[in-house]
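Tokens for chain A. Residues wanted.
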């Protein structure tokens, strides 16, 4: 009768089953080109069947690597599906690789804290960060400490680094264009916090659209995508009650869009009748509840996949200038 303490498969037991040397098995598991492709596949298949998992402590001792990629995220970014989908995307890309994903949450009050911890403890081989600023201290710190990384979002530091970003300038311009086609003339933008880099892209595209199509518009500066739901509801209720209130709204977050619709409704204004709204990204679930939102697509899962591939490429020594991607809006 088993006592539940069966030994986990090891390199030695894998070598015995395959009839190969421990060194050969180890190299085959690392997909070393020095081992014949047929042998690598045979060893890897045997390892999968046995449920073999490398001992991370042993791997670090032998190679100096942790086989960990850490994504540092603010857990409150989940309202628009960002948190879950970017994690799913990273997991997709890391499947069938030696790397494991570790999610490191952090507080907006000190975004440097988890970065310092990862570097000082050597707890990851690569890092993924989001919410980039024009001059981002995390980017500078990671470069100075030779830590491979990729960012969701660009910076304005004049430093080449791996990134995946969404073209928020094009999004905001297209949003204004769509509202113009709906006959709207007086717009409001509810954007990201002003300290984030994509705030400037979004505002630039919004203002460019207003100028191009001869429309009026303003940034609602009292709230942003980090604001509490009740703040958003109160601010947009007041917006609806203004005599010069907008007939078109641009939102860079679907969760903010829903709060805005609630606030406008409390102020007596109905979407599709008194105003139109363009927001991103709008899921099928959200559209089931509110079909009048004009959605523009942004693929967070794709972002996660590409960011993971970029970090693995940086670990392998690929130059960052060739690891830069800009996703364009899907209308």
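Reply:
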């Amino acid at each position: 009768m088993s006592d539940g303490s069966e030994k986990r498969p090891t390199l030695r037991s894998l070598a015995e089953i395959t009839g190969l040397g421990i060194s050969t098995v180890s190299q085959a598991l690392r997909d070393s080109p020095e081992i014949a492709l047929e042998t690598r596949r045979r060893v890897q298949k045997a390892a999968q069947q046995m449920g073999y998992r490398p001992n991370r402590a042993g791997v670090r001792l032998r190679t100096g690597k942790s086989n960990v990629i850490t994504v540092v995220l603010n857990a409150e970014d989940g309202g628009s599906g960002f948190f879950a989908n970017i994690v799913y995307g990273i997991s997709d890309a890391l499947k069938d690789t030696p790397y494991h994903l570790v999610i490191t949450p952090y507080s907006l009050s000190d975004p440097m804290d988890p970065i310092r911890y990862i570097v000082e403890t050597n707890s990851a081989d690569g890092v993924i960060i989001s919410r980039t600023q024009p001059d981002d201290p995390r980017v500078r710190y990671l470069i100075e400490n030779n830590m491979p990384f990729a960012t969701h979002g660009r910076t304005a530091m004049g430093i080449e680094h791996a990134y995946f970003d969404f073209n928020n300038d094009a999004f905001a311009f297209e949003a204004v264009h769509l509202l113009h086609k709906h006959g709207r003339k007086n717009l409001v933008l509810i954007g990201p916090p002003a300290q984030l880099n994509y705030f400037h892209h979004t505002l630039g595209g919004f203002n460019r659209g207003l100028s191009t199509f001869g429309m009026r518009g303003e940034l609602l500066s009292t709230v942003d995508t980090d604001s509490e739901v009740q703040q958003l509801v109160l601010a947009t209720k007041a917006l609806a009650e203004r005599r010069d209130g907008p007939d078109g709204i641009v939102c860079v977050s679907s969760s903010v869009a829903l709060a805005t619709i609630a606030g406008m409704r409390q102020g007596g204004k109905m979407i599709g009748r008194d105003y139109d709204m363009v927001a991103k990204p709008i899921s099928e679930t959200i559209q089931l509840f509110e079909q009048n939102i004009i959605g523009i697509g942004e693929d967070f899962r794709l972002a996660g996949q590409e960011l993971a591939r970029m970090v693995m490429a940086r670990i392998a020594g690929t130059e960052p200038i060739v690891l830069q991607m800009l996703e364009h809006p899907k209308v």
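The longest helix spans residues 197-213. Residues 191 and 224 are 5 Å apart (CA to CA).
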